[in-house]
């Protein structure tokens, strides 16, 4: 007797999965689509070009660099989901990414430049200027640019220089006019690096409101001969290097992790080159071959750019022009203070009465800052304990913690020194906190502490009270304005005890504690999620009402994906809102027919993690610092926590349900792994979930007045 068809389906079949890196590129493509969306104002479109470039820099510095390292050491084992070897992944990444970069620059040249010109802004080349304008520019060059430049000759005594990661450089080919030797001996090469302290945009004097902008590298290239007297400039090639910026931290042998990380930060600037970008205009093919050879860059990692390099420069352009061009940026939205937590009202009294839920940035992050600030000054507060992963440059949270220590409170702060690309910032804050008298710990060996939790211990009328803040996002007052995240304040006794045990585990020597409500990775989050999915399968088989809704940044963990496939095959309805990487493929017949995957990419960065299980009407809702990614579940200290208050559960469900109805900024993934905008049916209401949530927050605030 043959096997049943359902038994023959292998859920680990590579064709059922999206490759992690290609799925990330699909996310960055959705970011790029925002620069093409006619509903977005012009300056916002330019900003999305900058975000696309910034994302790509980090992708090359970490993900592509890691794959290249695997190839170099001969590692050719396929990854365990889509089954692609490192070489295959690099090949597919290059194919897709060259397409996306070409689209990015086509968007700038063909769509956004004409719009800028209608706003009287013109990007010009020096050669397009009149003689009088060139003369005026030469004076500016001599006085403001020339003194800062450093030509670096390349010869037997001066080898190819170590160029900074992400720096823009000019490779200059020169001919010695004084020598009559053959051309090879007369030819010289030099490098000139763009000074980082100078503005990339050089602006000509305004004429009737007309802004004429030149790129700094074009100005330097035009007058480059002034640096090389006695030589004739034969070519000038503008290029940019991206280097491997991943850090190798030897945690076991490190006597002082802070010093170890400081040393690695110094090395990061000089990692192996992983990408070479060259400007097509003026490109010298001989120099390109020379750079590829010197930097050991593969041809597929060379990007010939039809425009100026590094569009992250538009971040600065946006900041400068937004106050002037208010009609070309998003309409301002103001975060609302939640009901009952307006300025002047005692925050601890409010939390003692009931759990308080906040949805940022629709609701202000200020109560989170106020919670820590009030604890710092409250004479009844005995101790504050907090985890910090990423904070802002001038952090009010840090200032409050320092003040608390100076006020004699016991302050314990876990500062995660290994937060990627925030290591330097966190080293600085760790030192500052220690100077103020805080007890600072740096995390745990081989694990990143990514959880977001604060515990305040207070003594009131002779008894101990515990107040806890738990969140899905960082304690960063700046990103809280543009990231969507969720916060929960609670004074529930069991969660307070859980928080105490959690911090004692981080700071001391103790076995992993048992928790009343918290689930902590790397120990139990995956196990608990799998258990919840299994119970949903049982409810589906018994009652036919299984439903799972999960919102996260990324979904990569194969064990959880396979369990979701199993649930889908059992009939459980599964709705996933995954902003970024999603290795799960929905809609595959007899595998994932009951799974729908959507991604919302818009004005705000979707960042909250929410996990909902119907449980035959006994709904269970959880918030978490963790995405369902293998790295989060295996290699990080993360927290998953339940929403126990029925009223708050309803608030969270309303947010999830709205995200599932978004038909403006939502894209859905098909069974091939491709994304397309959600189709809006004729007559259907227009739903932009982010804007709707702002309107709801405004309405609640108005109703309270």
TrEMBL record:
Cofactor: Mg(2+)
Polyphosphate kinase N-terminal domain ranges (all copies): 17-123
EC number: 2.7.4.1
Assigned keywords, A-Z: ATP-binding, Kinase, Magnesium, Metal-binding, Nucleotide-binding, Phosphoprotein, Transferase
Residues annotated as domain Polyphosphate kinase C-terminal: 347-511, 518-690
GO-annotated biological processes: polyphosphate biosynthetic process
Keyword tRNA processing applies: no
Chain ranges of the Polyphosphate kinase middle domain: 133-317
Active site: residue positions: 450 (phosphohistidine intermediate)
Post-translational changes noted in the entry: An intermediate of this reaction is the autophosphorylated ppk in which a phosphate is covalently linked to a histidine residue through a N-P bond.
Listed GO CC annotations: polyphosphate kinase complex
This protein's record includes keyword Aminoacyl-tRNA synthetase: no
Binding site for ATP: 55, 483, 579, 607
HAMAP family tied to this protein: Polyphosphate_kinase
Protein name: Polyphosphate kinase
Gene that encodes it: ppk
